[in-house]
Prior knowledge:
The complex is a heterotrimer. By secondary structure, chain A is an alpha/beta fold. Chain A has 16 helices and eleven strands. Chain A is about 50% helix and about 15% strand. Chain B has helices at about 25-45, 55-60, 70-85, 100-120, 200-215, 220-225, and strands at about 1-10, 10-20, 125-130, 130-135, 145-150, 155-165, 165-170, 190-200, 230-235, 240, 245-250. In chain B, the strands form two sheets. An eight-stranded antiparallel β-sheet of chain B has the order 1-2-3-4-7-8-9-10. A three-stranded antiparallel β-sheet of chain B has the order 5-6-11, with no helix packed on it. Chain B has a single domain, classed as T-fold (Roll). The interface between B and C is large, with 80 and 68 residues. β5 of chain B pairs parallel with β5 (about 145-150) of chain C.
Amino acid sequence: MTSVTFDPTLTSHRGRPRGPSSSRPGAAPRPMIAEVALIFAGLGFGTCIGLAVTAETWKQLAAPGGVAMFLGNLTGLAGTYLALVMVLLVSRVPAVERVLGQDRLLAWHRRLAPWPISLIVAHAVLLTLAYAEAARTGVFSQIGVFLRSYPDMVTATIALVVMIVIAVTSVYSVRRRLRRERWWAVHLFMYLALALAFAHEIALGPSFVGHPFTRLAWSVLWSCSAGVVLVYRFGLPVFRSLRHRLEVVEIHAESPDTVSVICRGRHLDRLAVSGGQFFEWRFLTRTMWWQAHPFSLSARPRPPFLRLTVKGVGDYSSAVAKLRPGTRVAIEGPYGAFTTHARRRRKVLLIAGGLGVTATRSLLEDLPKDCDPVVILRASRAEDLVLATEMAELVRHRKGRVHELVGSRKEVRIDRIAELVPDLVDRDVFVSGPEGFVDRVVATVLRLGVPKGSVHFEVYSL
Amino acid sequence: MIVHTEPVMGTMVSFHVEPGECPVKDARAAVVSACKKLHELDAVFSTWKPESPLSRFRNGLLGVQDAPSDIGLVLDMCEEAMVLSQGWFDPWAMPGGFDPTGLVKGWATEQALAILRQAGVEAAMVNGGGDIALLGLPKGQDTWRIGIRHPWRPDALACVLEASTAVATSGCYERGPHLINPKDGTMLFDTASATVVGSSLPFCDALATALVVAGDDGAELARSLKGYDAYLIGVDGKEEATVGVVFAEATVV
Amino acid sequence: MTEPARSTRGRATSTSELRRMNRVPAVALASAAGFAGILALHASSGAPVLTGARLGTPGSTVPRTTAPSTTSSLPPTGTPRAAVGTSEQYGYGVLAVKVAVRGSRIIEVSMAKLQTAEQYSQSLAQQVIPTLHNEVLSTQSAQINGISGATYTSQAYAASVQSALDLLGVK
């Protein structure tokens, strides 16, 4: 069993790791891809509204139940389209994720969430009322007619119920009480719900019946989205895991509660990673195989080795410390926009709080020699300053400086940044650490005059 | 028997001619002449050719005095049909302006038959896309047997009627799609198909259209018609026929 | 990086501010463009938005003009051949026309397929297809001289006929 250390001096003068086979640098993000994707998302939304409107006539609106019918169709189209957008936001397409960052995509996903579910519920209610009025029957008998006589309505209703359950479990007060794995298992059923609902859209939607082109376009849209999810959410990770065949080789204690896990794998020279990125790790033990947790690499890969550094704060992270060498590992990724590619300017300031040092550590390796790095390491206690020696070595190599700020929040005020880094406004600032910490630092840094585009951050939650 | 099918007026007009005493050569020439007439009328009354006299008329670019006399004739017939149908046939109320299509096809078919009659043929049937004009009697039969297309079974007949002069049928298709949303919602008498039998094909045509549009009131309108008989089929399968409608057996022994 | 937590409830934090969608104007503009595009597409195909006119109403279709076929003075020769034209959307459903020719003369035109949403809605509404008293299920078996039926929207009908004629090699 080899003891592997990540010797920071194993870096060439250009900051790239020297070694028999160096790992590939991560692909540079192309912001245009994300812009184009967003434009298309907007176009699609407008198209859906247009389809609903053009499927309508004044005469139909004037008929009994006409307005409710129109609104029901409109909400159905719009709500389903937004549901599609929701799925695509978290489909982890690397080209998009590199630009926007998974945290931002997840934030958008959460912000958008109330809309599709509200629209779809409204759709069901409005159309039930509309049909009941048009056919002059009661609401309940109308529901019966839907379920008995109209094609694919049973599956659509099941889909609706599933969506409502998912929505309810995702409400903060409910989600808080649920174990994460239970919540996640329920949430995954959204794919099933969307698949079940598809048939009734095609069979009954007024924009689709008798309009083969629209029907085709909708079908293609959904098939492609399903394809994207299958490939990037499931296919690519499986492929990567199978290709690299990672296994744990060593657990190395960095501090009383923090360990570094070193994994070995095949073909790691072909894994393109940028410093600062993270993977979703799935340790294949009996108890942990079904969970994937994100951890940053705490150094660039040194084929055949990878390193991650984990702090034991909960059941899962504590279990990581107890992993036995030889444990197989499946990975998804790399993800993250906290990379050197995000830089706008030459000089940098890296601020790492607590375990935030892991992303900063690997990011530093990617930074060029002339970046004149100033690194601020912040921890409550001295023993929490993990990887400090490596950081110091890397920084010294680049002729920068490190400041270690140890102490409680009362003792150490974050405004000290201004005096520690006089040319703060000329630097790109990278902040990583717990949420509260990142928040305070970012607010301070913005207040001190750093332009928004030059502030980059990665938030950890404990 | 001379059989000929001519694509014109956006549909197929078929001719079945029994020359009888008339020389076959003349009968054929009459068919050619009738087709020519149909094309002429098509050119005048086409609503989708902006340069046709009717299009120019309905856009106000052509006054009725300057228009071909056929247009004046059709205008008069439309007014008469409107009265006869108690307002349910109203070509002025169509979106896009005055649209006599519901009557013109029947009239054109009748004009074609007139040419054949003038040529002296013994019997003829001109079927202008469902509007049928009849002359004489078919060989070996004592009446023309006309099948009425089934409203919801594509290859079936609703019934077989006996007719001697003119038959026209109109259906829901022209009313507009209900799609799968029951817009109107009523399950009362809603007309799927209306067939009118009478002496003048253009009026049969207009009345058939009127009866479909009339919906619930169609049965009453049908009963009030003099000189025309109607057979109505509701979307629920309910059938109504005035006394003059004669049903025939599908097969003759 | 462990899973990013939801930003502290309610309070607008600086990180959430940085994450905010500053691309909203571009997306909104794209939506408006998509909407306008569909309206323009709809209008250009002949049906103004929200009026009574729908695509495929008899008044608005443009049937293809076919040249008048010349009647030959010779009796029709050759064995009859038939072809079914393409299925055409006619706004209320789908139809396909079967054309039989002998030589270059059309001898019969019949409906090979007719599927209307109307029928579909009827069958749904009634769950049982009503039977008519005198109905004849096969036109073939009936001894009739002609069929009277409602005309279909001409464009689709003519297009299907034309394609059948093309298949048969008749002009």
